[in-house]
Amino acid sequence: MSYCGPVTLTHTDRQVDQPRAQPPRFVRADGPDKVTGSGRYTADLSLTGMLAAKFRYADISHGRITKLDTTAARAMPGVFAVLTQADVPDVRFGPFVADRTLFAKDFVRFEGEIVAAVAAATPEIAAAAAAAIVVEYEPLPVITDLEAALAADSALVHEGWAAYGQADPVVRDRNDASFSSITKGDVEAGMAEADHIVTSRYVADGCHAAPIEPRAVVAQWEGNKVTIWTSTQVPFDARAGVCETLELPANRVRIIVPHLGGGFGGKCGFHYEAHIAALARAAKRPVRLLFSRREEFLAPDRRREGMIIDITTGVRNDGTITARTGWVALDNGAYTADAGFFPQLVAMHVAGPYRIPNVHVAAHLVYTNLQPSGSVRAPTAPQACWALESHTDEVAKVLGMDPLAFRKLNAVDTGAVGPSGQTFGEIGVQRCLDQATALVGYGEPLPDDEAIGIAIGWWPSFSVPSGAYIKLDGDGSGQIITGAQECGTGAVMTLRQLAADELGMDPEDFQLIYQDTSVAPYDMGATGSQTLFNNGRAVVAAAGQIAEQLRNLAAEHLEAASADIVLANGHAHVNGTPATTVSIVELAGIASGGELLIGHGSGTPPPAPLLVGSSCVGDLGMAAFVAPQFSCHAVRVRLDRDTGVVRVLEVGAAHDSGTIINEVGAVGQVEGGVMMGVGQALTEGTLYDDQARQRNAGLLEYKLQTCADAPVIRTHFVQIVTPDAGPRGAKGLAEAPNVATAAAIANAIAKLVGQPIRQLPMTAERVWGVMQS
Amino acid sequence: MNVPLKIAVDLNVNGTDYPVTIDQGRNLVSVIRGEIGLTGTKEGCDDCECGACMVLLDGQPVNSCSYLAVQARGRRITTIEGVMNGDELHPLQRNLLEAGGVQCGFCTPGMIMSATALLDRNPTPTEEEIRIGLSGNLCRCTGYAKIVAAVQTTAAGL
Amino acid sequence: MSFTIATSIADAIAVMAEGARPVAGGSDLVVGARHGKAPLPEFMVAIDRISELADVTVDGSTLRIGALVTHATLMAHPLIGNDYSGLADASALVGSPSTRNVGTIGGNVMNASPAMDTGAPLLVLGATVELTSIRGSREIPLGELWTGPGRTSALPDELCTAVLLPHRAANAGSAYVRLEYRRAMEIAVVGAAASVLLASNGTIASVDVALTAVAPTIIRVDGIEALAGLSIADAATAIAEIASEQASPISDVRASDRYRRHCVGVMARRALEAAARRAGGESIAIPVNRALGIGAAR
Question: Could you give the 3-state DSSP secondary structure of residue A354?
Fold first, then answer.
C-alpha cells in the first residue's frame, strides 16, 4: 500500500552519501489542480457584488502631508468607499518596532506608502477615484545613504522614533532601528597574533522576491465577522495584523489562502488584508485587490535589503584564522517590518561557519526613505555570504592558499565551536566542501575564460510551535487539518507521507485541509524553512494518537496485546504473525460506530543550543542556530572579457539539511534556490533615481533568469540524522540553497578578473568596470 | 466623452464558441478570465515579460495580456483547460507532476502551453531548443531543470 | 470610435484615409496604452487578416517581405537565412517565442524604436519600405523613414505594406549581434549589424555597419569606405573604434553611455567578423549570438 515507505537511516547509511538509485516517487497532492488550471488562486476568486480596490500611493519618498482631500473621489459615480488613516483605528504596529500605520499618518516615508484606498464598481473607476484624491506635501530630505543616516546629526526618517513601542530586546537610536553585536574572545589580541590582516568592504544593492503571482486580497463581511482570502505565506500572522490594526478578536477574522503562487518571503508578514477588510466594511460589499506587477515591485514591505559590509580577518602564515571583526549597515527602508532581527542574523553570516577564537561583529538596521525591507528567502544571508566568502578568497590569496584548502582548514566541523560559542554536534560542512567541488570537477583544467568558485554557507532551522489535527473517517480515508501553509515548496504536501508512514497507510489515503485560520491550529506559515521541521512534528504526533487508537481496536479484534500490533500496508497485524491481520478500513468502520478516530498534535519545539564564551547586544535569539544547516556551492562560469557578461554554466550544490524525507521536493528546492542566487549574483538589483524612486519596477528591466539561462545544477545531500531537529532528523531546506550561490559565482568571477567585484549584483557593466580599473 | 466601443464577437476557446460583447481595447486574457470564466490562464506582469498568460492561437503561443481580444475572432484559442485528453492528463501534465516540475504552479499553465506548442512543432527538440522554446515563461520556483526534464520525457514518449 | 476589420489593402487604406490607425498583433499598442504611453487609438483597423501582406516573395531581383510577416517566419525562412542572415539573426533574438509569433516586420519598422533588433540589419541590407495610401504607393529607404524615437516620416494615412530588400551577391554576408544580459526576453542594450562583400583575395571589398540603441534612431556608421582592401581582422579592429566614436548613447537603466559606447564597438567588430565569415561561405547558425556563444555559453 505504501509506495514511499519510511526512510530509516542507519549508521551505515550515513556514511553513504549517494542518493538511492530509485528516489521515492512524489506526486504532489495539489499537482492535478495546478497542471489542469482548475486550481484557484486568490485572483481567480470573485464574489457577487464584489468591488475593485485601488490604492493611492505617496509617489514621493519623504514629505509632510499638508493637504489630503478625498471629496472629489468620494463624489464620483461608482465609488463606494474612500479610506485614509482618519477612517481606521489609530494604531501603530510592527513586530519589532511599532513604527507603521495602515495609511500614511501626517508623513509619507517611501514612494509606495499607501495614503488612501478606494473601493469602486470597476478597477477603472477605482483608479480614476484614487487619482482624484488631492494630496499635497511639504518635501523633506530624502535619506538613502546608510552611513550618513547613522551620523548623530543626520536628518531623521521618523521624527517621533523615541516614542514608538518596540519588542523588548531591540536596541535602537534615531535612524538605527535595531542594533546588534556578537562578541567572543579578544579581537585586539587576536589581530595582534596574526601574520596578515585583510580588510574588505562590500556593498549589496537591494533586490526583490518577485514571485510570479502578484498579490491579491478579497475580503467579505458577514455580520461582525470578516473572511479574507489572500495570497499570504503566513495566514496566522496576517490574521494577527488584521486583529491588531482593526481592533478585532481573532475569532472574528478568518484568513483563507487559496493556492499561493510563490512567495520567497515576499508574501510573509501582514500586508493589505486590513486595508481591504476596512474597505469592504465601509462599502458594505466584498472587495478585491489585484496588484499590478509594478505595484508588486513598489509597495510591499518585503524587499531584500541592501547592505554595506566591512570585514577584517587576521590569519597566521599557516592559514589559521586568529580574529575577525565585522561592521554592517543594513537598509531597513522606511518602516521596520520583520527586519528587526536581521542585525543579529547578518552578524552570524559575517562571522560565518568558521573556527574563529576572537570575534566582534556589529550591525545596524538603518532607516532610509526606501521601500521597507523584510524576510526574503534566507534574509541577510546571500548578501553577507557573498561578502564573507569573497573576503575569504581574498584572505586565501594573500596566503597563497587554494580557496578549498583554506576553507577545509578553517570551516567548523563536528565538535567544533562556532563564532558565537555554539558547540556543534555532527555536522556535514566539511563533506559538503568535498562533495560540491567533486560535482563540478574542481581543480581540473579549464578554458581560460572559465573558472570555478566555491563558497560555504549556513542557515538555522527555526524551532517554533505548530499544530495539526488528523481524522480517519469511517471508510478509512484520512484528512490532515493543518495550520501549515504551502507556498510551492511541497513541504505541506510531504506531510501526507509522514502521516501515512505513522499509520502504515498510503500518502494518497490522505487529503490536506490547510491554509484556513478558522479551521486549523496555529502554524508560523511558509517562512523560516520551518514547515516540515515543526508542522511535521505536529502531524507525526497527531498520527501517533490515531495509531494508538487503531492498535487498541486491532488488539481487541485480533485478541492480542496492543503493544504487539504493527500497522503496515494498510493493515494491522500482530507482530511476528503477519497472517493475523485486519484492515485499517475495517477498523475505521468499527470506530465510526464508537470512539471516532481523531488525533491532534503539536509536540515540543527543540531547544536552542547553549552559547559559551560570547556576549550579544540586541539579542533576538539568532546567535544560537538550532539544527544548523550547511552548504557548499561550487560554480563554473564563463566570462566574456570584452563586455563583462558572465554566464553560469554549472553548479555543484552539496547540502547538509539532515535527513531528506522527500527527495524530489528537496532537489527542487536546491535547484530553485540556486537559480534565484544566479539572478541575485548577476542581474537582479533595484535601481533608484535621485529621489529614491525605483527605476526598474518591471520584469523587463528587473531581470529574472530565464529557462535559457539556467545552468546545469548537480545536487548532493550529505544526510546526517540530526538530534534536536525535525521529524526523523530532518532540518529545514527551502532557504539554505539560496545562501551560497552568489558568493561562489563571485569567487569564480574574481579568479577570471583578478580581483573581486565589490558590488552586488555583479552586472556585466560592473564586471567590465573592474576590468578597466 | 470617450465611450469604449463594444463589439460583439464569437471567440472559439477549446473548441467551444463563446459569444461575447467586449470593449475594442480589452486584452484577450481579461476576456478569457472575466467573460468566459476560465481562470487557468494567469496574469503575472501584463507586459509580455513573464508568460503566465500564454495561450495558443491556432496552435501558436501568444501572450494573451498583450493581444486584443477582438483580434482573436475566427481563430482557435487553446487554454490550459483545453489541454487534457478528455479525463486523462496530457502526457506533459503527468510528466511535470512526476518529475517535480510543479511547485507553486502559477507559471505552470503558461509553461504547458508553450511546451505543447513546441512539441507540436518539433516532436524531437534538443535541450537547447526546449530551453529557448520555454524562454518566454518565467518560473521563480524550480530553476527550470525539472520542467525541461518533463518536456524531454514527453518528447521521448511521442 | 470604430473598429474595422480589413481583408484587403484597399479596405485598410480607405479607413486609414478617414483617420483609422492600423493594428496587426497589437502588442505595442496594447502594452503602450496600459502603461500610459498613448491611449489606444479611437479608430482602429485590424490588418492582421490581409493575406496579401503575409508573404515573403521574390520579385525580380528584389525580396519582398509583406508587412505582416512575423519574426518567427523571418528567422526560419530559408531565403532570409541564406541571403539575409543578419535579418534572421535579429528576428531570432526578438523577445520570446510568443512575441516572435505576434510581432511583425511592418509593426517593428513603423514603431521606429532605436532599440529594435531588426532595424540595423535592414539598414545594412539596403531595405526600402513600401508605404501605401489611397494616393498610391511609394518606396523610401529605411534611413529616411525614421526621424526619431517612435517617429517616422510616413504620413498618418500611409500603411506600411512591405519591406523590400535588394538582391545579394554570392560573396556577400551579413550578421547581427547584440549585447544581452540574459539569453532571452531581452531588449538590445546595444547591437550592431554588418554587411560585408569579400574580394576574391579574402580582403574586404565593401562593408556596411549599423548600430542599435546608441542614438535617437538606428544609425549607419559613416565613412567606412576606407575599410575596403583591409583584411577581415584589420577591418574588425578598425570598425570597433569607428563605431564607438560615432555612437551617441545615453545612460539609462540598462547601461551607462560609457559602457554602451565601448560595447557597441565590440558588437560592431563581432558583427563584421561574422558577416565576413558568412561572406566567405562559412555557415554560422542563426542567431549568431547563440551560435558563437556571444552572450551564450552552452
Answer: strand
Nearest Cα to B23, choosing from B67, B68, B73?
A: B68
Beta-strand pair A287-290/A51-57:
parallel
pLDDT digits over A183-219, tens only? 999 999 999 999 999 999 999 999 999 999 999 999 9
Please check whether residue A722 is in contact with residue A326, taking contact to mean a CB–CB distance below 8 angstroms: no
Q: Which residue has the cell 470610435?
A: C1
Residue A15 in this model has a pLDDT that exceeds 50 = no
Is the link from the previous residue into A761 a cis peptide, with omega within 30 of 0?
A: yes
Strands A358-367 and A253-256: unpaired
Contact (Cβ atoms closer than 8 angstroms) between residue B31 and residue B69? yes
DSSP A19: P
Residue A139's CB is within 10 A of a number of other CB atoms, namely 11
**B134 part of contact set with chain A, CB < 8 Å:** yes
Query: pLDDT tens digits, residue range B46-66?
Result: 889 999 999 999 999 999 999
pLDDT digits (tens, 9 = 90+) for A405-464: 999 999 999 999 999 999 999 999 999 999 999 999 999 999 999 999 999 999 999 999
CA–CA separation, A20 vs A10, rounded Å?
Answer: 14
Distance from the Cα of A678 to chain B's closest Cα (Å) equals 10
Chains contacting chain B through 3 or more C-beta pairs under 8 A? A, C
Q: Least CB-CB distance to B47: which of A34, A667, A700?
A: A700
- Amino acid at the residue A17: D
By the 10 Å C-beta count (0-12 exposed, 13-18 middle, 19+ buried), C203 is classed as middle
The answer to whether the Cα torsion of C164, C166, C168, C174 is positive or negative is: negative
pLDDT of res. A700: 93
Provide the 3-class DSSP secondary structure of residue C169. coil
State residue A301 phi and psi, 5-degree precision.
-90, 60
Nearest to B32 by CA among B48, B56, B51, B49: B56
DSSP state of A428: -
Q: Return the C-alpha cell found at B132.
A: 529557448
Inter-chain contact C185–B62, Cβ cutoff 8 Å? no
Give phi and psi for B91, each to the nearest 5.
-55, -35
| Distance (Å, whole) CA A295 – CA A299 | 6
DSSP B41: S
Outline where DSSP puts E strands in A640-730.
Answer: 646-656, 712-717
Tens digit of each residue's pLDDT (9 = 90 or more) over A71-81? 999 999 999 99
CB contact under 8 A, A769 and C259: yes
Q: Which H helix or E strand runs over A72?
A: helix A71-75
To the nearest 10 degrees (0 to 180), the angle between helices C257-279 and C232-246 is 150
Contact assignment for C26 to B67 by CB distance below 8 Å: yes
Determine contact: A344 vs chain C, CB below 8 A. no
Mutation target among B144, B147, B153 for the A interface, most CBs of A within 10 A? B144
Contacts 24+ apart (CB under 8 A), A398-401: A398/A196, A398/A198, A398/A315, A399/A196, A399/A315, A399/A317, A399/A319, A401/A319
> Can you state the angle between helices B145-156 and B108-121, rounded to 10 degrees?
40
Kindly list the residues from chain B whose CB atom is less than 8 angstroms away from the CB atom of residue A28.
97, 102
* HEC profile of A219-282: EEEECCEEEEEECCCCHHHHHHHHHHHHCCCHHHEEEECCECCCCCCCCCCCCCHHHHHHHHHH
Place of cell 531548443: B129
